[in-house]
Amino acid sequence: MNDYKVDDVRNVALVGHGAVGKTTVADLLLFQSGMTPRLGSVDEGTSLLDTDEEEIDHRISIASTLVHFDHAGHHINLIDTPGYPDFIGQVSGALRAVETALILLNAGHGVEINALRVSRMAQEAGIARMIVLNKCDTENIDYDSLLDSIRETFGSNCVPINLPVGLGADFQAVCDLVNYSEPPAEGTLGDPESTRQALIEAIVESNEGLLERFFDGEELSARELSANIPKAMAAGTLIPVLFMSAKTGVGVSEFMDAMSNYTLCPQDIQRMEQTKDGRSVVIDPSPEQPFVAQVIKTRIDPFISKMSYLRVFSGKLDKDTAVVNVRTGKPVRINQLLDVQGGKQEPVDSVSVGDIFAVAKVDDLQPGDTLTADANGDGLSLPEIKYPHPVVGLAVEPKSQNDQQKISGALHKLEEEDQTFHVIHDEETHEMVMQGMSELHLKIMQEKLLHRDKVEVLTHQPKVPYRETIMASAEGSYRHKKQSGGAGQFAEVHLRVSPMPAGVDPETYFTKENFDHLRSYQYDPDLNFAFVDRISGGSIPNQFIPAVEKGVRERMKQGGIAGCQIQDLICEVYFGKDHPVDSNETAFKIAGSKCFSELFGKARPALMEPIVKIEILVPEECVGDISSDLSSRRGRMEGMQVSPGGYEIIQARVPLAEIMTYARTLSSLSGGRGTYDIELSHYEMIPPNEQSKVIEILNQARE
N or C, where is the chain less crowded by C-beta within 10 Å? Predict the structure, then answer.
């Protein structure tokens, strides 16, 4: 696929908030490098990027897009990523494939929330960062305030490597601080001398030899500084800041030079593999080493079906070669290797270290999979790619019988493409629920269903998966007797139900000291439920005990007061009777179910609701409004953390029922500048004043 050396490869991702111009910049880079004969436009349909129907309709990037070009002797693989938090999952895979994140900011707007989020993701991924200030031709930009906000958000190691000569309508050039010549051009903003001094200090901090020479007062050459910028970026002592305008072209060639000269090559980042015994091993990024690659993205192409995008971290691969998927341990034959340029693909004969390529129609691949040349399947595995949790759900059902036949396969395709889109079949609410990052995210998924698979769906708010439990103990018996000619049915069971304490250790709790005549117990940690066998004297034959438990579990699944799953209780079977002819498993299952049902009603049944842990990132001036709103939703504040750039993280626990449509509220309260993550925490009792209302609503829905 390439004729260049590993250290000539540059893998970068364009990341940042929405509408800062990432796709426009990517199109411009392709044009300036000669890869396209004319400047591409998404609106005119001439762009290699944002080619999906939904992207064109909404005029936003929805999926990450891979393009490449050559500049100044280097081969640059660039991944353009979506900027809106709704599609943040696409950024996760892109950051695994690159060594440098190019954080694009709108100079007129400053630091926006998704730029902060993706910067954190890049930092957690262990890759270098470079900040590119686009739209410097925008009016009313205050240079000092802009730099202060960048340093406050991303750290004091953010240092310009060039300075703008004017801003707004006066933005006419940039002043290079690496290859610096005095005096600076008239109109250069900032203090070139002090800024260059700060830049040199950030560079030498990562190199002991240069640091000693610097302190000795020795003058460092521009070549030495340039060569050590990638090392400083890798060490985290420097986050370069550049100025440009994609609209006017000012600073674009300097940006391309910076990508070529300063972003990291595959050998500048230590990549680790995990052995099966948990040890970490450094990957040698050399073509001579065994082949190692990882799947970073899946795309379902309407013409060539499933495409998997991979990044090569070591070794080389030829077409028509078998490799091993470490996750499955099975061989995978790669018949065709595809060089990807936006929405176009071309077959190539081989790929090597640093390449990002695609394979088609290899079904058993999913994002995060490691492929190796180890024929035994014992190859080392790269760390899994971490994706954000979905926070919004919609119950979905097919609109027609024809849609019913196609919906399952169509939804599965969407799940394969987008690791932040999940479909669950909720056994408790009997609904199929789509989960995503936002209402817009789920709307786009519905559009894809219609455009690509011709599937129409109906949606509504999903039901809350309430649970039931008991607050007291009860015991009693039930006799099941049925005689209708021929063999009859007979079973009698005596049960005791009691609340199951939270957080107990079953091994130390279920002992003969606590339960007389204890013979055995079965514990279900998901429901915090225990079935305890205390039968003595063979009053119920051993072969019928599992049938009693089965009857109890089936009744628990059906619920007792509102049709919801029952949890947090202990059920003890301690006596019973059988008949030598008429007793069987069916009879004891029925008796167990009926007895449990009667006792549940006597043990002060109560309804429980799911509580979620929520973390909300908002500007500090919005904290008061957000906190008040959470309190009105029965939320409990658990803490706050100061976040860079004038943001704060609010931590709370809130009933799920209160935040089913929280995304709209947060957007309204924060002016669209807030994001949040949720995960299920636990179940707890609904307040008494709410219990009867919810039970009535649930029972009406069942009728």
Answer: C
